[in-house]
Amino acid sequence: MSKAVSDVVIVGGGISGLSIAWSLVQRNVSVTVLERAQVGDGASNASAGMLAPLAEANRPGPFLQLGIASLRYTRRLWRR
Ligand SMILES: Cc1cc2nc3c(=O)[nH]c(=O)nc-3n(C[C@H](O)[C@H](O)[C@H](O)COP(=O)(O)OP(=O)(O)OC[C@H]3O[C@@H](n4cnc5c(N)ncnc54)[C@H](O)[C@@H]3O)c2cc1C
Fold this sequence. Notes:
It contains four helices and two strands; from the N terminus they run βαβααα. It is mainly alpha-helical. The chain folds into two domains: 1-49, no CATH class; 50-80.
């Protein structure tokens, strides 16, 4: 019997683990994702992916700038 071997094993099938897995597969890296429950049923099931920098930061500063930069970056990814 042959054993499947992956280059990378990721523990956790939330948005983080699945995003990393997807990114690695795009680079022809073989990946196994281990999930103890249901994929996407952790915190990602609550509200992952919504970037609302003006709602999260209560004053100008580096945190707000980071949120705005993240939102810009995400919008560029969606246009691809
Ligand atoms: C109520 C709430 C509101 C939120 N609102 C926002 C928002 O507005 N905007 C935003 O950007 N983010 C928000 N977040 C945060 C966001 O949801 C999380 O930062 C993000 O989903 C984390 O993703 P993750 O993949 O790291 O974790 P998770 O989605 O929790 O995935 C981790 C996975 O790992 C699995 N796991 C854990 N341990 C093991 C193990 N030992 N073996 C196998 N599998 C394991 C779990 O079962 C789970 O499926 C919110 C979170 C909550 C709870």
